[in-house]
Amino acid sequence: DKNIQGPANGTLKDIHAYAKQNTENLNSPHGQQILNSEPKTWQESLYKYYFRANRLYKQIVYYSWRFAELHSQKLVLLIMVLVSVLKVCAFNVSLIILTILGLILLRLRSLISLLTLIISGVYILASMCYQLEIAKQEIIEKNIFVRNCSEISPNGTLDSNSNIIPNDTAKWFGLELTPNIDRFIGMYILLTIVLTLDAIVRYRQRHRRLKLSVHFNVHIIENRFPILFEPFALKNLDDDTYQYDISSYQQADQGVIDFLKYLINFVFYRFGLEICYITTVIVIGVRLDIVAVFYAIWLGIFLISSRRFIKRIWPIYIFFQITSFSVQYLSAVGVPPILCFEYPWTNVNIQGWSQLKHWLFLPDYVDQPLATQLITDFFQFLFACQQWRVFAYETNEKDHVYRDAGGSNREIIYDDDVYKNNPTWDFVTNKRHWLDHIKYAIFMYGVWSVLAIVYLAGTTRISLLGLGYLIACFYFLWYGQDFLTKRVTVMLRLYVKLFSHYVFFFF
C-alpha cells in the first residue's frame, strides 16, 4: 500500500480488459493492427488465427482461475463430507464440524483449510503408526481399547444381548489394522491434495492482483461478491472505500451474450430460492425417511409463503440444517463400544422393525444408518447457506453495489402502480433480438408448459392426487389465454391453492 503513490494508470474497466487478455502482445498497437487488418498472405492469416487463439486461450485461463477461486473451497468441503461418510468413525466428526463452520462462515476459509490439513495429516500419521510392530505389541496385543461387554450387565450377570456390541473402540475411533494402507488413507491423501490446490489458487490470484496493482498504480483487491466476469475491486486508501465495476441487469437486456454473462454472475441471486426448492425435492426423493418428512414440511412452508416471510425464518431453517446434519452423522457413528451402552431399541423384535429403524435413522451397532445419504444433505445445506448470503445482500446497506447491479428481488405484485412507468422494454410487441423472443416464449407460454406437466402428473397415476391435478388443469385451461389478463394477485392465489393441494397429498 505504501508503494502505491501518484495517479492511477487506468480505470477498473481497463484493468479487467487487460487482465482478461493477460498478454502484452495483444494490447500493443501492432497486435491490434494485425487483428483489425485484412490478411494478404497465408502467413498473415496464420498469424491472425494465432492471435485470436491466444486471446481465447488467455480468456479461458483467466476465467478458469476466477472460477476456481470462487468454488475451490466448496470442492474442499465436498471432499471432507465424502471422506467422512465413506469412512464413518469418531475421528471424522471433527471434519463434519469444520464442514459446517466452512459453510456458514466463509471468512474463516484460511483457518478451516489449515485445521483440516492438520487433522488430515494427524490421521494419516496415526494410521501409519498403528500398523507398526511396536503398536501391535504395546496397544493391540495388550487390548488397551478392547472391552468385552458380554461380561458386564446391570445385575452382574451375563447379558446375551451385549454380544452384539463391538469390543474394539480403536476401530470406532478410526484406527484398525489393514493389509492395504494405501486404500485405507487414500481419501485423506486426496483431501490433502485438494487443500493444496485450493491454497495454490488463492496464492496465485493474490499474486496476480499484486502485479496488476503495480502495473496500474492502484490498490486492487478481490471482489468480495461472487462475481465471475468482474473479479477485481479498487480500494481507496484515503477514505477506505471501494470501487466496483459489475455488469448490471440493465446491460443484460442488450443481447443474448450480455444476458448469459449477467445470468452467470447473478444466477443464485435471482434464482437461489428455486434452486433450493429443487434440491430439497431431490433430497426428499433420495432419502424417503423421517428426515425427508421434515424437509417436506419446510418445503411446504416455503412454497405457500412470501419472500419477505421466508427471509425472516431462513435463519431458523439454517439452524435446522446444522442440527440435522450433525445429529445424523453422530447417529451413524454411534456410542463408543467401551461404554457398553445398549440402545433401548435393541430388544425390539417386531415385524418390519429393521425397516422402521432405518426410516427413523436410529444408531445401531450391527445395522448402522446409511451415512452416504448425507451427501445429498450437504448440497442442500450448501445452497441454503448461499441463499442466506443473498438475503444478507438484500438487507445490508453496505452491499448496495451488488444489489443495484443484480436488480431488486422485492415482490412488486402488491404495488398499485405496477403497470405505470415500467422501465422494462416491451418485448411482447417490439422484439429487438433473440433474447426478446426467448423472453416472449417464456412469459407467454410458460404457464401452459406448467399445466402440461400437471396434466402428465395427473394421468400417470390413478389416485385422488391425480384427480385433483386433472381438475386443476382443466380449471386453468377453461380460462384459456384470458387467464394471463387477470390481476397478478388473483393468478398467484390460484397457484397457491394448487401448491396447497400438492403439499397436502405429499404427506
- Structural category is mainly alpha
Mean pLDDT: 80
Tally of alpha and pi helices: 19
What is Rg? Answer: 29 Å
How does the major sheet shape up?
A: 3 strands, antiparallel
Q: Helicity range of the residues?
A: 55-70%
Count every beta strand, where a strand is a DSSP E run of 2 or more residues: 3
List the helices and strands and how they pair.
Elements (H helix, E strand, L loop, with lengths): L11 H10 L2 H4 L1 H8 L5 H45 L6 H12 L4 H22 L2 H8 L28 H5 L7 H4 L1 H31 L3 E3 L9 E5 L4 E4 L11 H32 L2 H14 L3 H27 L19 H7 L14 H22 L4 H7 L27 H26 L4 H16 L8 H19 L1
Antiparallel strand pairs: 1-2, 2-3
Task: Summarize the entry for a quick read.
This protein is mostly helical and 507 residues long. The chain contains 19 helices and 3 strands.
Structure, described:
With 507 residues, this protein is mostly helical. Helices cover 63% and strands 2% of the residues. Among the domains are: 146 residues, no CATH class; 95 residues. The chain contains 19 helices and three strands. Strands 1-2-3 form a three-stranded antiparallel β-sheet. Helix 12 runs antiparallel to helix 19.
Spell out the key features of this protein.
single chain, 507 residues
